[in-house]
Amino acid sequence: MVAAGGRYRMPASPEYNIPAMLVLALDTTTRRGGCALRDGDVAEAWSGAEARTHGERLPLEAVEGLAARGRALADVALFAVVIGPGSFTGLRVGIATIQGWAMATGRQVVPVTTFEAVAHGWRAGRTPDRDVLLVLVDGQRGEVFGAAFDARGSSVAPPVLTPVVGPPDRVVAMAREAAAGRSIACAGDGARRYAAVVAQAAPGIRIDEVTVPLAAAAAHLAAAHPDRAVAPHALRPLYVRRPDAEIARDRARAADRGTDGDAGAVAVLDAATVALAAGPRDLADVEALQRETFTNAWGAEAIQWELDHTDVARLYVMRAAAGPLIGYCACWIVFDELHINSLAVAAGWRRRGAARRLLERVFADVMPAGVQSATLEVRRSNTAALRLYEGLGFRVEGTRRDYYQAPREDALILWRRDLGGS
Predict the structure, then answer these.
(1) Helix or strand (DSSP H, E) at 366
(2) 198-250, pLDDT tens digit by residue?
(3) Is 341 helix (H, G, I), strand (E, B) or coil?
(4) How far is Cα 400 from Cα 255, in angstroms, rounded to an integer?
């Protein structure tokens, strides 16, 4: 990457056979943020002064940058935007700006998470010599957002550790557990800020610098994976950390109950990990929870068979930082639909928001793959589950007569047609 007058040029990654198309990418996850235009095999990035907010700088900053390069919005074939985690306000401004451009030009947008952009920037011009890449994004408040990837795989492959937020030493510990003894490299502004904490939490971990701007990495990823493009209205930010208003509400409820247990549960859920099932321990724990919860439980072999023989199947497990299973979600991804086949939460965690938190993290994980709607079935008499799903935006759209047995009961078919909607 060569810097010139505050603008940056990055060669395309040799890992991808990237088609020639004009891509405009926008990053507003940090105060500086930036834009990038990928033309041919080069992405050129530029950013404005931090003294002005994104709302003040956009869209003029991007349009002027295009004009300086002899281009206009109408020339852009594909848009990309970094969807977070990052500044709440910045993300909303960036996504709204991209949505306006895409709708005005009739183009689609590729959503790129901050983790994916850092990972791709880390891979650019580098021969990976570590097994796992841990991306740490500064989350302020003494916390980091973290996600880990196969260092030798694609930047958009399912992560080794799905996005989490917490104190840096705790997030590093989660990554070490997920890496299962494999060597780890660490990158991102959170890694730089908390370098001493990271080194102490994981001796032998290497912290690498990433000089590629997020917008430039996002532009290359969009060109390499145009199949991930979505309609502009389907864009949603990836926050990872819940909004302050929700956290305050949970704490207020805990205080009203007059117990420390519920407040402690909120803290544990904040630090809990949600990841794709990997290995016999996950399957055994899911099988045990099923037997405790359902009359006709699946066996571990049946679960493993489906994961091995059905390309659309996914099994997410939610664990406390200390390791115990909190809950799981078994689902399929069929084109742009998420079919939730089974979900259960351990008895000690029910009615504490665990199911909601689990589903929110599953939704955040599948939306970058183009999933736009979700569906599931619920017993007609299960009013608690109905309240949960309706609170998540699901609506009853049909009935399956006598779907459930022992006891026999109708199933209500629920859909959430705009998965990223509020």
Answers:
(1) helix 354-366
(2) 999 998 999 999 988 999 999 988 988 888 898 888 888 887 876 555 555 55
(3) strand
(4) 41
CB 166 within 8 A of CB 270: yes
> Which tens digit of pLDDT belongs to each residue from 157-206?
778 888 888 899 999 999 999 999 999 999 999 999 999 999 999 989 99
3-state helix, strand, coil split of the chain in percent (to 5) is 40, 25, 35
Distance (Å, whole) CA 413 – CA 420:
19
The whole-angstrom separation of Cα 198 and Cα 102 is: 40
Catalytic residues: 377, 389
Instruction: Calculate the alpha carbon distances from 173 to 202, 269, 357 in Å.
Output: 7, 16, 21
Q: Report the DSSP beta bridge partners of residue 330.
A: 315, 342
* Cα separation values, 277 from 195, 210, 288, 290, 341, Å: 30, 30, 14, 15, 15
Q: Facing residues of 184 across strands?
A: 132
Is the pLDDT confidence value at 1 over 70? Answer: no
Distance of CA 359 to the CA centre of its chain: 12
273: Cβ–Cβ under 8 A, 6 or more apart, which residues? 161, 162, 164, 174, 178, 318, 319, 321
Q: Which residue has the tokens 């939704």?
A: 363
Q: Which residues contact 360 (CB under 8 A, 6 or more apart)?
A: 392
Burial of 97 (0-12, 13-18, 19+ CB in 10 A): buried
CB atoms < 10 A from the CB of 291, how many?
12
Whether cis (ω within 30° of 0) applies to the bond prior to 407 is yes
Residue 104 or residue 308, greater confidence: 104
Contacts 24+ apart (CB under 8 A), 59-68: 59/97, 59/100, 59/101, 61/35, 62/24, 62/26, 62/35, 62/97, 65/35, 65/37, 66/24, 66/37
- Residues in contact with 320: Cβ distance below 8 Å, sequence separation at least 6, in sequence order: 268, 271, 272, 326
Calpha distance 101→265 (Å, rounded): 43
DSSP string, 125-166: T----SSEEEEEEE-STT-EEEEEEETTS-TTSPPSEEEEEE
In this prediction, residue 308 has a pLDDT band, given cuts at 50, 70 and 90, of confident
User: Two tokens at 170?
Assistant: 């705790």
